[in-house]
């Protein structure tokens, strides 16, 4: 697998993120097992604190991931013609770039080996206008979709963090006062 190609980059990042999450969970498990070796009287609320802090850490990771996705889609919405195109997409930043890459695309993806006559400049311009409008509309849709999903995730993770951080603080204060 070639991790340098743009189409496999999200797969490689997802795999690396999964490994990172796995390592964090293993580390948390080791810390939990080390902390619970004492008697129950030594650490009466350790399980609740561990749970609360674990949820806080996961909330921070999801928050940062959602924020990154939101920023990426915002950049794509600002410059939709420079955003990632689909498979075999021509360069749409200008008509001259489209015209220069049109021939290359036809040679790569043409079903027959016989050369075809290139379309006229008017036909190419009509195709270019249609493709640019499609790219702009697609970028707007992706931005709206990302905006809604990422804002919902940002709100949920913020609420989870606040609730569990307060829970961890309350359990810590109860444990420090000696009450069980």
Structural write-up:
The N and C termini lie far apart (55 Å). The chain has a domain at 60-180. 73% of the residues lie in helices and 0% in strands. By secondary structure, it is mainly α.
Describe the structure using short key phrases:
4 helices, elongated, mainly alpha, single chain, disordered N terminus, 180 residues
Q: Mean pLDDT across all residues, rounded? A: 75
Describe the sheet with the most strands.
none
Give the helices and strands as they follow along the chain: HHHH
Helix % is over 70%
Number of strands: 0
Oligomer: single chain
How many alpha or pi helices? 4
Radius of gyration: 26 Å
Q: Per DSSP, what share of the residues sits in E-state strands of 2 or more residues?
A: under 5%
């Amino acid at each position: 697998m070639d991790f340098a190609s743009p189409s496999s980059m999200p797969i490689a990042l997802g795999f690396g993120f999964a490994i990172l999450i796995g390592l964090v969970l293993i580390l948390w498990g080791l810390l939990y097992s080390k902390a619970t070796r004492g008697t129950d009287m030594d650490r009466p609320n350790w399980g609740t604190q561990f749970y609360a802090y674990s949820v806080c850490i996961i909330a921070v990771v999801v928050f940062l991931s959602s924020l990154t996705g939101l920023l990426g889609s915002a950049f794509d919405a600002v410059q939709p013609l420079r955003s990632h195109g689909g498979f075999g997409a021509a360069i749409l930043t200008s008509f001259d770039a489209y015209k220069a890459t049109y021939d290359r695309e036809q040679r790569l993806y043409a079903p027959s080996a016989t050369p075809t006559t290139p379309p006229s400049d008017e036909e190419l311009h009509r195709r270019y206008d249609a493709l640019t409008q499609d790219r702009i509309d697609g970028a707007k849709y992706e931005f709206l979709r990302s905006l809604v999903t990422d804002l919902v995730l940002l709100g949920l993770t913020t609420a989870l963090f606040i609730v569990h951080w307060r829970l961890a603080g309350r359990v810590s204060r109860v444990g420090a006062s000696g009450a069980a």
